[in-house]
Structure formats: C-alpha cells, structure tokens
Amino acid sequence: MTERPSRSNSETNRSPSYLECVTRALASSAEPLTLDALSAAVERMHPLARSGRSAIQRAVEALYQAVPVGSARIGWLPHLLRGNSIRHSFDADEARRGFILLDELEHAFFFPEFFQEQAHEGARTLHIELFGGAVIDAEAAAEHDVWALHLDAKFRSWLDNQGVMPNDDLIIRADDALTGRYTVRLQPREARDEEAIDARNKLLARAAEEVAADLLHHRTPLYTWELVARLIARGVFRHPVPADD
Q1: The pTM is what?
Q2: Secondary structure letter of residue 239 according to DSSP
Q3: CA 170 – CA 245 distance, rounded (Å)
C-alpha cells in the first residue's frame, strides 16, 4: 500500500484567510452580526493585523452571501432565507414535465451559495415537503438554457391530485435553506387574494427602487442577484402573502 504523503508544517499550520474566517463566522451565526462581533469571531480564528478590520470589510464585500441587514449588521443569506415565502406562477409545460424554471429570485432562494459553489451546483439535493403529500428530493437542471428545479414523478402525481391548472401558483417556503429544506403548496388561481397580492407587489417595487438607488450610489454596476439578496435581507419575503414572481 502506498503511504499518503504527509503535509508540511507550513501547510498544516497555515492560518485560514480572512475570507475563510468571515465565511465561517457568518455561516455559524443564525443571527446577523455587527462588524465588532464579526471582528471578534474572526480574531478567534486569525490574529488580527493592523489592517485586519479593513480586510474583514473587503471579505464581506467579496462574499455574495454576506448581506447588510440595516446599517450596522451583516447576515448570512441562507440564514436570512429561513421563513421566507415566494410565489411561482405555474405554466402547463412545467406541470407536464415536472420542473420549475428559476428566475434570479428563485435561484437564490433554492441555491443561495451558488456563487461560491458553482462547481457543486448539481450536488445540492433539496428536500421539499409537498403540502398534504410526500417529501421529495430535487436537484438543479437546465431546461431551455435556463436554470430549473427538476422534480420527480411524485411531484407530478401530487399536482394531479391537487387538480393543478395552468397559471395556478406554487407558494414556496424556505424552512431551512442551509440544509435545503422547503415546503410547497398549490394555490389555485381563483383562490388568489388580488388586493393583498397587489399591495405586496407595490411594497416590493418600492423596496427594490430603494435598494437599487443605494447600490448605485456606491458604484455603477447593479446585479440582479445582489438586488435579490438585499431584498431578502430587508424581510420583504417574510409576509404570508407573497408578491407575484
């Protein structure tokens, strides 16, 4: 048997980078952290140099999942998603073939660590509880060159039993995005509370305008996935009546 090569002392004793420390600190905290609390957590893993606080701030800015919550705290996107609900208008092709085409919001909702883990996208298995039905597994797939969530035959059977019709809505709740646990229920088109949904649509639009204005104030590019993360951090999707997709 060939012996496994031993690691050098320098490799074994290497301190984690500020980026790694910030990732660990935020991912291990269910609640958003102030910069002081984050710095203290990082210092327990990596001695802070004179420029350490600036390095932590740069790491926060580099991590998609590190999202400002208000003006003084930083949250971890998978934690911030807990209890959020979104609405997906279901079309006939999706119902027939058993997949959900994902827009930027839905992609962030199901795969919040995508931008740091692109190589492992297909390896993330979601566990989705179908309201009144089974718990099924689902993975990412590509449909018509668009990211989609591929669901198994149990999903199609559940839809049939629910009497799905084109343009019915799926209401999707993140129970624990970190471990990939979600709940899905079907809302028939005729059961929509149009007045409540319209109010949520307007609130979402106003919040998006405010976030976009704030981001553009600091720099020129505005990426949709950043806008989505900031909206999640604001709690826009915590209401039991989700806005339209």
Answers
A1: 0.85
A2: S
A3: 10
